[in-house]
Specification:
The protein is mainly alpha-helical and 197 residues long. The protein has one domain. The chain is 74% helix and 0% strand. It is built from 8 helices and no strands. It is globular. Residues 1-25 have low confidence and may be disordered.
Length: 197
């Protein structure tokens, strides 16, 4: 009985000390919870990008932009590592692998649930890039040229959409949209499904 009480007291102490160290504070009555950086970005995007045609353009062009960037990074030649080649692990190790890890980690720091959705999205993109590689091997166009054309088309569409807005969108905000646009689109899906992100 004494051991159980001692365990309960120490567990409570541990929870309190960890919450103090991590900066978690209890919300006082009438006090607003501060917004996470990702929510601040999304609010800014929602304020800056209001034109309905531009929203449709973004739903098409942002995923195409993300796909084409991944495809171009995927196609950068990767140095051959004998140890990996010996065991057959060199097939999917390329600069795209490191790019994927960096992107998913960055999104994970901003919004974990949205990063999982992006991880699945990147998996679909990777599958499509590998299919484009098979088409190239069969005599089709080079993957880098397809991705470069998609990149130019999506950038042009996003830039023209940006110019449709009543209030001029700063170029820096446009660059943030290119970086955070994929999870911004996913956040609309999560809101519609009432899934917290």
């Amino acid at each position: 009985m004494v051991n159980c009480q001692w365990l309960i007291v120490n567990c409570q102490w541990l929870v309190v000390s960890v919450s103090r160290k991590s900066g978690v504070k209890k919300k006082k009555k009438g006090q607003e919870v501060p917004k996470r950086p990702v929510e601040v970005y999304f609010d800014a995007f929602n304020q800056q990008y209001r034109h309905p045609v531009n929203r449709v353009i973004q739903w098409i062009a942002i995923p195409v932009f993300a796909f084409s960037i991944l495809g171009l990074v995927w196609m950068v030649p990767f140095p051959e590592i004998a140890l990996l080649k010996k065991y057959g692990y060199d097939t999917f190790l390329n600069w795209g692998s490191f790019f994927i890890a960096g992107v998913v980690y960055y999104y994970l720091r901003l919004a974990p649930t949205l990063s999982y959705a992006m991880f699945v999205t990147i998996g679909v993109y990777s599958f499509l890039i590998v299919q484009l590689e098979y088409v190239e091997q069969g005599g089709g166009p080079a993957v880098w040229s397809v991705c470069a054309c998609l990149l130019m088309a999506s950038l042009l569409a996003l830039y023209l959409g940006k110019n449709m807005e009543k209030v001029a969108v700063p170029f820096r905000s446009f660059l943030k949209l290119l970086l955070l646009g994929p999870i911004w689109l996913w956040h609309f899906v999560f809101q519609k499904l009432r899934i917290p992100y």
